[in-house]
Each structure stands twice: as structure tokens, then as C-alpha cells.
Amino acid sequence: MHPNETILNDYADDLLDPVERAGVDQHMAACAACRQTVEDLREILGAASELELREPPVRAWSRLERAIKMEPRLESGARGFPLDGARGRQPGGSGGARLKGSRSMWIAGLAAAAVLVLATAVGVRYLPANRTDATPAAASAPGGAAQSGAAQSIETELRQAEAHYENAIKGLEAIASSEQSELDPRTAATLQKNLAVIDQAISESRAAVRSQPASEPAQQSLIDGFKTKIGLLQDTVALINEMRKGNEAGAARIASGLKQKGT
Amino acid sequence: MDLVARCQAGDVEAFETLYRQHSARIYTLACRMAGSAEDGEDLLQEIFLQAYRKVGSFKGQSALGTWLYRLALNHCLDYVRSRQAKMNKLTDTIDAETSFEPAARRETPIARLDLERAMERLPEGCREAFVLHDVEGFDHKEVAELLGIAEGTSKSQVFKARLKLRAYLTKR
């Protein structure tokens, strides 16, 4: 008889006492299946313990920085933190610096608003699954009627999500296009090319959703397309902000990430 | 002024230094606990924002990195509990995919990227137990306390996760 799963697992983790261990050793000497199971369990354990750390996307700090700067205690101005982070630098005189700070605030504010809209849209995205589980009336309704109602509801919610994403994209596009002169021509060209690829994918996904409104892969693909586009536009805004701050290293990191998007 | 004091004083540059030092570890934990890079990025954002708000209450009883890791772990656990409550997907049985039978042999060792992807496919419940035990190195008693489950359940969830991973990695 094979050892049970707990014993085999504890054996792989070296948690058995000597007597139990000897018993499993004896069984395994004649059982290739258990030997292989233990070997596989240990290989997975070994590989899991050697996994490497993952670097967050370059945009993550920019997003966080924007959120931090919108925190109430900083908005109070009690500590006087400069909103663009360019402490002590006053390019273009005090009037210019004030204007620059105010534009950065505007960019940060719009981008943060877009993030909020995105969060709402993500919330909407999870609604259909929850609603299906939590609506006994729908579950007990005659099959066809319930399914048709659920499909209509999913379609409505998807449309709402689409509208939220499109609003967020519109806001970010306005920032990116009005500030695009800040970008060097090659980066701007890469950005346009990647946006075109993403727009094409969104357009195809939208067509798939229109022809099969209940298809989860089609819905997911459309949402993913929106999120990719928002991510790219957020990176663009972050890049513009880094260039304004004169942070060449930060800008280079983001620009290198931009080149990989949409491919 | 040291980094802690500067962070506590609200210095954003100091907080960026703290972020650069610890973001990879926190992001990695968040991605693995949540099961996706997308959710991991959102969690990373929430964790550091919470750290920014709470760093003033840090008393220096442990290293700042340890304090941050605990905060991150608690946040990830809250996220996982809330998602499990919503989705009710915690399963206690070993389904057909996690066969106790020997799997076909792989010819090459497990590649890290393959394992990361396979971990994302693990069901709620067993993924968190696996990440905490096999990746983060907590023992079953600690995993049980963190997840609010029995120690035996932690063991069986980790075992289930390993068998599923074996199946996923063999089917490549």
C-alpha cells in the first residue's frame, strides 16, 4: 500500500521522524511511482526556493509618486514639497518655475483622474461573475430567459467599462498629444507606432465582442487592449514628467520600456 | 538625517530610495500571491501608498524593510481573503488534474519562467499556501496562522499545489 499524501509530502520536506522515514524508504525501494513523486515534489520545492525577484514596471514609481503627491498632508503645503520634485532648481526664473509647477500639477491631476477611472472600470469588469453567483432569482429563472438576461447584463456592463476606459484614454491622450513636443522624434514615432498596433488590436477585439457578446475571451481581449493602451499612455505621461524634471536616467528607463510596448 | 527619519518627515526623495530598495521584493510577493502581474502592480501601489501614510508610526523595533514586508504581506493576505470571499473558489479536494499517479518525465530541469507561469494558474487557496511555504519559506504552522486555516489544511494545500504544478509543467 502506498503511503498517504501527507506522509509522502512530509517525507519530501524531511519532516518525518526516523521510524516513519525508514518505513517510507522501505516502500520506495520497491515503488518507482512513489520514488518519482517524491523526486518531483523536491524538484518543485527546489525550483520554488530559487526563484528570482521580479522588477516592477518602470511606470510603477511614477504612478506612486503621483498618488503620494495627491495625499492630503502634502497638499496642505505645510512642509512645502515642490510638486515637480525639482527642489532648488529654478529654470526660467520664478514665473516660469511657477508655471511649470502648475502644469505638472495639471498633468499629475489628470493622470491620477485617469487612474481613478481605470480603477472604476476594473471594478466593473469583475461585476458579471459576482452577479451571476449572487443572484438566486436569476439562477432559478427558466434557463433561456436567465441566460439571455445575464448576457444582456454583461453586455451593458461591458459597455459601461468601455466608456470608462475610453474616458481615461481620452484624458491621457490629451496630455500625451499636447505635450508630445517634449519627446524626441524617434520616441514619438515609436509611441505612434505602438499606439497604432494597440488600436488595431482593440478594434479587432471590439468586432469580436460585437459578433459574440457573451464570449469571455473576446471581452477579456478587449479589456486587455484598453489596459495596454492606458499603460502605454501612462508611461508617456511619466516620461514627459521625467524629462521636465531633467531626470535623464528615469526618462531613459521609461523610454526603453515604451519601445517594448505594443509589440 | 537617516532614511527612516527622512521618510517620516515626508521627504518624497527618501521615500523613492526606500521604494527602489524594496519594490522588487514587494512586487514579487504581490504578483505571486495575487497570481498576476497586473494585480501585483496594483497591490504594489497600494502597499507603498499605505507605507507612506503609516511610516510615521514606525517605531524602529525592527528593520524598516522587515516592517515594510509585514505590511505588504498583511495587505496581500487581506486582498486574497477578500477575493476568496467574493469568488468562493477555495477548494479542498484534489481534482482529476492533480493526479497522484507518476507524471511523464521532463527532459530538462524546471525553468524559472515556466514555474512562474504555472504558479499563476494555481487555484486560489493552494497558490497562497504554496507561495508562503515553498517560495517565502514560512513553515506550515506560520502559513496556517497567516491564512487562518488548520496546519493540516496548509500541508494538503501545498501538496495539492505541487501536484498541480507537476502536471502543468509536464504538459508543456
Condensed summary:
The complex is a heterodimer of chains A (263) and B (172). Chain A has helices at residues 5-12, 18-30, 32-49, 59-69, 72-75, 93-134, 136-140, 143-178, 185-211, 216-245, 248-260.
Describe it.
- The complex is a heterodimer of chains A (263) and B (172).
- With 263 residues, chain A is mainly α.
- In chain A, helix 1 crosses helix 3, helix 6 runs antiparallel to helix 8 and helix 9 packs antiparallel against helix 10.
- About 27% of the residues of chain A have low confidence.
- Chain A has two domains: 45 residues, no CATH class; 184 residues, no CATH class.
- With 172 residues, chain B is mostly helical.
- Chain B has two domains: 78 residues, Rna Polymerase Sigma Factor, Chain: A; 59 residues, Winged helix-like DNA-binding domain superfamily/Winged helix DNA-binding domain (Arc Repressor Mutant, subunit A).
- At the A-B interface, helix 1, helix 3, helix 4 and helix 6 of A face helix 2, helix 3, helix 5, helix 6 and helix 8 of B.
Keywords:
heterodimer, A: 263 residues, mainly alpha, 2 domains, 11 helices, B: 172 residues, Rna Polymerase Sigma Factor, Chain: A, Arc Repressor Mutant, subunit A, 8 helices, 0% strand
Topology:
The complex is a heterodimer of chains A (263) and B (172).
Chain A: H1 5-12, H2 18-30, H3 32-49, H4 59-69, H5 72-75, H6 93-134, H7 136-140, H8 143-178, H9 185-211, H10 216-245, H11 248-260
Helix pairs in contact in A: 1-3, 2-3, 6-8, 6-10, 8-10, 9-10, 10-11
Chain B: H1 3-8, H2 12-34, H3 37-54, H4 64-87, H5 112-121, H6 126-135, H7 140-147, H8 151-170
Helix pairs in contact in B: 2-3, 2-4, 2-6, 3-4, 5-8, 6-7, 6-8, 7-8
